[in-house]
Amino acid sequence: MHEGRDIPGARAPRARGFTLIEAAIATAIVGSGIVAVMGAQRAFHQRNEWATHAAIAHQLGCEIRELALRLPPRDPVTGDDVWGAEPDEGSVADFDDLDDLDGAVFDSADGTGPISSLRTPIPDMDGWRQRVRVEYIDPFELATVVDPGASGLVRVTVAIDFLAPGADAPAEFTRVSWIAPRSR
């Protein structure tokens, strides 16, 4: 036997394992998969953040709606003589009828809001703002705004804005609207 000697023309046994090219290709495939998973996770977090903000915005709109539902349609003292807050109604605590909310802004930037249905600012709501508009509407054409007193219906619209950290201006997240009779 020829132990320990090379046999002419015979091939040497090949070492088992990956070549450099095979390892590079495997690394590229695994790397591409990791990048794709990270991109998907980033998109998920962005969607989740938006959904969280949308839910908060809706809740803040509903807080104003709940507050407004407890207000009478007409001022108990002045009736329909004054639209909006009367001169002696300097804060939301003094509002005594629905139209007092017209033009009201409850903003975390100035400490007035956002507010709950109990008329108190909600703590730890930096960047949020509630803007309220109350307007008379045509009872047969609900999209048409009419002069104050010309209809028995008002539309209350609450726009909810959020100023994200580092943003230049707040973005409107949602609007909550409802129609209320003025003849209760």
Layout: helices, strands, pairs:
Blueprint: H1 20-69, E1 105-107, E2 128-138, E3 141-145, E4 153-162, E5 171-181
Antiparallel strand pairs: 1-2, 2-3, 2-4, 4-5
Structural summary, described in words:
The chain has 184 residues and is α+β, with helices and mostly antiparallel strands. It has one domain. The chain has one helix and five strands, in the order H-E-E-E-E-E. The protein has one helix spanning 20-69; strands at 105-107, 128-138, 141-145, 153-162, 171-181. Strands 1, 2, 3, 4 and 5 form a five-stranded antiparallel β-sheet that branches. The longest helix is centred in the first third of the chain and has 50 residues, at 20-69. The termini are far apart.
Spell the H/E element sequence: HEEEEE
The average pLDDT value, as a whole number, equals: 86
How many DSSP-defined strands? 5
Q: In percent, how helical is the residue content?
A: 25-40%
Features:
184 residues, alpha+beta, five-stranded antiparallel beta sheet, 22% strand, rod-shaped
Q: In short, what is this structure?
A:
With 184 residues, the chain is α+β, with helices and mostly antiparallel strands. 27% of the residues lie in helices and 22% in strands. It is built from 1 helix and 5 strands.
